[in-house]
Amino acid sequence: MEELDSAYERGEYLLSMLISQATGGNADNQHYQALRLEFLNNHATKQCVPRFVRTNRDLSQFWQFIKHKFPSYAERRQFIWEEFNPLLEQLESGSRAPADTSISDALGQLSESGVQGVWSKALERRVNDPEGAITSARTLLETTCKHILDELQVGYDSNAIELHELYKLVAKELTLSPDQHNEKVFKQILGGCSGIVSGLGTLRNRLGDAHGKGKLPAKPAPRHAELAVNLAGSVSMFLIATYRAKSAL
Question: pTM score, two decimals?
């Protein structure tokens, strides 16, 4: 099951296991139980999981259910396919927001530096691991800034520099600092970008998974993680687009 990279592939695998079990074949019970819990514990997919999967904790229970419900293999296949449609449709299109694709395309240009990998990890963690997603969002910005500075051959202390300091260096090199512009609206927008970067750094320190917690730690919800990831992706995409535009001059 390790070779199944996407949630959609795992959903199809779960479907094929149940069809096999229902039509005289054999399936891996451990794989069934692991995938069942994965989709039930995922806020985005829980409501789409077929009811018979929710109520049958292992394949032996499923067999007792399906063999009495339909006498023929054809009826069993048709039933399982129809019941799985909502889950597969959700896995195919519902788990990614419209912005995800455009940001992925932009960050893919820097995949050799690990930017795309960090972005993918942040997307995957948004629902099930909000703290990890927030940490990945911060790492995404840091990786993007360092990559651009390396491309521009601008020196920085990789071990000591803070995220907001990295961003200031990049902004200055790309003429994105508010004090480099006279137009009020540009100053506001660029100041907002700087504020987002500083805010994400603080959010990561307080709610991410990179530091120890006290007795009553604040817990981020998936919506907080989604906001952090989308903001980090948008700012990173803006930095990359600006860098590309200046490099083309």
Answer: 0.55
What is the token pair recorded at 105? 């395309």
Q: Please give the C-alpha separations between residue 81 and each of 1, 69, 93, 128, 168, in angstroms, as whole numbers.
A: 21, 15, 18, 26, 53
Q: Where are the domains of the chain?
A: 7-94, 98-247
pLDDT in tens, 208-242: 544 444 554 567 788 888 888 888 888 988 898 89
Cα–Cα separations (whole angstroms), residue 111 to 79, 108, 143, 150, 244: 42, 5, 11, 15, 14
